[in-house]
Amino acid sequence: MKFFIDTADVAELRRWHELGFLDGVTTNPSLIAKSGRKIFEVLEEICAIAPVPVSAEVVATDAEGMLKEAAKLRAIAPNIVIKAPLTWDGLKATRALADQGVPVNVTLCFSAAQALLAAKAGAAYISPFIGRLDDIGEDGMQLIRDIRVIYDNYPWLDTEILAASIRSSDHVKEAALAGADVATIPPKAMEALAQHDLTDKGLAAFLKDWEGTGQTLL
Ligand code: G3P
User: Fold this and answer.
1) How is the chain split into domains, by residue range?
2) By CB distance 3.0 to 4.6 Å, which of 70, 123, 138, 216 could disulfide with 82?
3) Is 85 helix (H, G, I), strand (E, B) or coil?
4) Is 130:95 a contact under the CB 8 Å cutoff?
5) Which of 132, 185, 188 best tests ligand 1's pocket when mutated (most atoms within 8 Å of CB)?
6) What pLDDT, on a 0 to 100 scale, did the predictor assign at position 21?
């Protein structure tokens, strides 16, 4: 499974990128707003730090406007992936961009039928929002499972399933079990991935016993 980081916070990005296992970055208008920075400036910095696919979202709601914004966003760096919403206009723009060889991440997916449409439109990624479905009492992970089955039924659909709106390390595990190709993980959930009480306790015990030997490794 590929690990993307879901952030527009450059300090967080740098930290996780330096660990060496970051396969991509996703941003959205809310994350850009949270960063408090200008969109082109922050995306340029992100692309320079991490030479991996970086999703940048359009904000126009008509296909023509989306295509104009996409051209400006793509001019930032060659690793920019255009993020477009799952609307008919978003799908129209996706088809046009895919035909030009531009990778598109179709976002705000809440049903398997929507995911099928995005794949038909030539999306490079589909972003089903797990956490937001859980928030309204639905089973977000079931959506990932359903999309996996549908895409596997038609192997010529080469859209990657990018599990989004991830809130916990359990979401990452479940998405991996369900066969998501990618998880885009917010920094807090990324941090939680390595944490286990028994790891902390075990390490403390090993270090205490080691100290008792009076030895050093260096
Ligand atoms: O990638 C989309 C994701 O950032 C949405 O997450 O937590 O705002 O539902 P959330």
Assistant:
1) 2-213
2) 70
3) strand
4) no
5) 132
6) 83
CATH topology for the 2-213 domain = TIM Barrel (3.20.20)
Distances, alpha carbon 46 to alpha carbons 9, 75, 105, in Å:
9, 14, 17
- Per the CB < 8 A criterion, the answer to whether 74 and 82 are in contact is yes
Cα(154) to ligand 1 centroid in Å equals 28
Closest to 64 (Cα-Cα) out of 30, 92, 86? 92
The reply to whether the predicted model has a pTM over 0.90 is yes
* Phi-psi region at 165: left, alpha or beta (left = phi > 0; alpha = psi -120 to 50): left
Q: Per the structure block, which two tokens stand in for 198?
A: 């028994």
For ligand 1, atom 7, which residue shows the shortest CA distance? 165
What is Dmax (Cα atoms) for the chain?
A: 71
Cβ(6) to ligand 1 under 6 A? yes
* Ligand 1 contact, 28 CB (< 6 A): yes
Catalytic (active site) residue 201: no
Distance 186 CA to ligand 1 centre (A): 8
Mutation test of ligand 1: which of 3, 6, 25, 27 has the most ligand atoms closer than 8 Å to its C-beta? 6
The token duo for 159 is 């859209």
DSSP character at residue 159: P
Query: Which residues lie below 8 Å from residue 45, measured CB to CB, with a gap of 6+?
Result: 10
